[in-house]
Amino acid sequence: MLTKRIVPCLDIKNGRTVKGVNFVDLRDAGDPVVLAKQYADQGADELVFLDIAATLENRGTTLDMVVRVAEQVNIPFTVGGGISSVEHVDALLKNGADKVSINSSAVKRPELVNELADKFGSQCVVVAIDAKEIDAEWFVHLAGGTIPTDIKLFEWAKEVEKRGAGEILFTSMNHDGTKNGFANKSLAKLSEMLNIPIIASGGAGNVQHFVDTFKEGKSDAALAASVFHFGEIPIPKLKKELKKHNIEVRL
Amino acid sequence: MKLVIIDYGAGNIKSIQFAFKRLGYDTLLSNDPEEIKAADKVIFPGVGEASSAMEMLKESGLDKLIPNLKQPVLGICLGMQLMCLHTEEGNTIGLGIFQTNVKRFSDDVKVPQMGWNVIKDLKSDLFKDIKESEYMYLVHSYYAEHCNETIAKTDYGINYASALQHENFYGTQFHPEKSGSKGAKILENFLNL
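The joint structure predicted for all components is written out below.
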């Protein structure tokens, strides 16, 4: 059976990981390659690198990081942040990224999803959606959640699937950072409505939250950052617990 | 050992090169028929859409060359699918090395299949020291139907051929280069064939 995926997310700035990372026996916790290898060894199924300071000037630094990750890490990884052109995606994939994640640029120019899917195949096009629930309605937000739009989450998700997205990474802004669990009701609705995989993001605080998002949220994968970076939830332990709950995982 | 990766514009070749590099082997990217024929082992990669990939193979005459290679050849993902008779993707005639057809997954399952799934009923030296039901990384919307040449099986809605072998030709639907240490072992096995 296809397993549920556990996906650590690393925030990258100028080719280094940012936000605190607290790993035992790690000489350089700021080096994305060192961290990525550690996660791969622990049993992470996939990795996401989010370039939070993505600018034209930094593009070379990010590409260099992508090559170094691809050189040393033997599991798939996605790169996101500031991606808005076919040329940029071409460069990332040629340097060894398996998938790219686009967010604001897809909202600004939805044809980008078609262009990427046509040129590189849907399998490498992840559309990330940040949304916030306001009066029982979910609205898409841009630029890392700072700019609200009047676009509705479920309509937008359906549209990007039609345009060729291979996967949706849904971050609930209401849950992100709370450590109170994922937005499972909306995740389940997305999963039932669409026929592409859904990655849950925002809200992971304990093992039960992962169980819940796979069972109640019908998520195909779960992404988290701090609970992994600070060793609050070791990945091997998480996967064993998921297995105990009869959730199919790769051990 | 001279290890050549067929270069016809299909993506994600870097990952394959790095995977062999981690095993201690350099690879040569080439579309030169003489160079490919002279290789000890040949890798036939593929990511993207079938009909346009097939067009690129035809433009460079590689569609005639590949089926006549005598050394071990490993097709990966779309590479494997293009080695079959026909694929529903873009209604494309394949190289006809494997006597089977490639179909799209039904919408009863999420398409593409994306992630780690198990390979079973392993039947080839390609899987030496790989245990039954080992996890491999897969990303695909189309699958090869079973035939006599099936050497690994996977379930996703239906049971399909996740690896094929005909004489010196091998194909894996999964990505050994992205499947952790077990995937690396399969690549190593291929080098030892």
